Amino acid sequence: MYGVGELSASDGGRYAGMGNIGLALNRPGFQNTLNPAAITRMDTTCFTFDVGAAISYAHYSFLSEHSSNFAGNPNRFSLGFRVMPRWYFIAGVNPYSSVGYMIQTEEEIEGMPGSYLYSLFEGSGGLYRFYLTNTFLLGKGLSVGLNVGMVRGKITQSETQEGAVVEYESSKRAFYADLGLHYEYAPSGGGTRWAVGLVFAPSFPIAHDNTLTYTNSSTSEGVDKDYSSRRQYLPMHCGVGLSLTTERWVVEADYNYVDWSHNTSAYTSLKYENQHKVNVGAIYITHPRKPRSTEWMGGIGVSNSYINLKGGRMRYWETSLGVSFPIRYSFLSLGASWREQLNSRSELMQESRFSLNLNLTFGERISRSKLK
Predict the structure, then answer these.
(1) Which of 243, 314, 323, 335 is surrounded by the fewest CB atoms within 10 Å?
(2) Which Gene3D superfamilies match (predicted)?
C-alpha cells in the first residue's frame, strides 16, 4: 500500500553522524554511496573495506495509546580500490529503503453519532541495493560516476479493522542506476576548497511476488493466496550539494527531490507525495596536520513524508551527531540520530525514532608490484 518505503536517510557509513549528507563530500578513506562521483580521494595503495550495522528504536503514540518497535541489522558492506590512475571502483550492498510505520485512524460511523471505527495500518521490512560503482577523474577537480545494480527485498504491510486483519507480503526486485558529478575548486590554491555534487537516479519498474493473508478473530477460517498489485516504480531522485572545506571544518548543505508520481494507491484515502529534503551538516577535524585525525560531526534536516493519508501531510525533522576515530590505518565511526514527526493532528499516529550506526573502515595494503 505504501510502495517501496522511505528512502534510506543516510548511507550508514563513516559520516552517518552528519545525517543525510554526502552529495558534495569527497574525503580520504570515505566510500561515498550518495554520489558515485565523489570517491576519487580513495587510498590508492590498498583495498578499502566498509562494514556497518545499525539499530533503531521507534515510539508511536495515538491519543492515550502507545507502542514501540526495536530493530537491528547489518546495513553496509563495500569494497573499493583504484583500478587505474583515473578510474575508481566500488562493489557493495547498503539499504535502499525501509518500511517501519504504525498509523491509526478514527472515523465516525455514519448514522451513529459518537461511535467511531478505528483502523490500524502497519508496515515493516525494506529493500537493499546491490551496486557496482565506476568513477572517472576527468580533469583537475572534476569527476563523474555511475552506479548500476539491483534493488531487492521483502515488505510486509497490514490493515486491521474490527478484528479483521489483511496482511500483504511482497518480495520486490528492480534494476537500479544513478549518475553523479563532482567538482572541486580551490580559489586561492590554499587550504580552502569549494565543492559541488549532483546526482540523478531515474525511475525503474518493480517486479513483485505477492501473497495476501486474511484472518478474522470471529472465525477460525482464513485466506492465504497470491494476488496482483498495481504497478510500482522506484522513485525518480535528484539532488545537489554544496560544501566548503577549511583546515579544521567541513560544512555542507544538500537538497534532495524524490518524485513518486509514477506510483498510485488502490485506496482513495491515501496518495503519494513528492518529497523535498533539506540537510545541513558539519565536520570538525581535531588535528588537521596529522594524516589521520579524530573527527566530530553533526547535522540537522527537515523533510516531508511520501505518504498523504486523508489529506494529512506528515513532516519530519532530524538531528544527528557522530564521531570518527582513527585506529592505525582504519576508522571506527559512531553516528546517532533522532527523528521526530512535526504534524500535530490527533487523528494521525505520532512517531519518533532513535537510530545508532556503527561503522568500520579498514584497508588491505597492495604491494608496489601490483600498482605498476
Answers:
(1) 323
(2) Outer membrane protein transport protein (OMPP1/FadL/TodX)
Range of the domain at 54: 6-371
Number of compact structural domains in the chain: 1
Q: How far apart are CA 180 and CA 33, in angstroms?
A: 10
- Secondary structure (DSSP) of 195-254: EEEEEEE---EEEEEEEEEEEETTEEEEEEEE-----EEPPEEEEEEEEEE-SSEEEEEE
- Report yes or no: 258 and 217 within 8 Å, Cβ to Cβ: no
* 310 lies in some domain: yes
The three-point CA angle 21-336-319 to 5° equals 60
From the CB of residue 64, how many other CB atoms can be counted at a distance below 10 Å?
5
Top mean-pLDDT range of 69-78, 342-351, 363-372: 69-78
Length of the chain: 372
Q: Tens digits of per-residue pLDDT, 282-324? A: 999 999 988 889 999 999 999 998 887 767 778 899 999 999 9
Main-chain dihedrals φ then ψ at residue 364, nearest 5 degrees: -115, 115
Task: Please classify residue 202 by burial: count the beta carbons closer than 10 Å to its beta carbon, then call 0-12 exposed, 13-18 middle and 19+ buried.
Answer: middle
Band of pLDDT at residue 179, cut at 50, 70 and 90: very high
Residue 1 inside a domain? The answer is: no
Q: What is the pLDDT of residues 144-164, one digit of tens each?
A: 999 999 999 998 888 888 778
Q: How far apart are CA 24 and CA 252, in angstroms?
A: 7
Q: Domain for residue 292, yes or no?
A: yes
Task: Say whether 330 sits in a helix, a strand or coil.
Answer: strand
Residue 61, pLDDT score: 76
130 in a domain, yes or no? Answer: yes
What CATH number does the domain containing 89 carry? 2.40.160.60
- How far apart CA 196 and CA 184 sit, in angstroms, is 7
Name, in order, each residue with C-beta under 8 angstroms of 40's C-beta and a sequence gap of 6 or more: 26, 88, 135, 137, 143, 182
Beta strands in the chain (DSSP E): 6-7, 46-62, 65-84, 87-108, 116-139, 142-161, 164-185, 193-201, 205-216, 219-226, 232-233, 236-245, 249-259, 270-272, 275-285, 295-309, 312-327, 330-341, 350-365
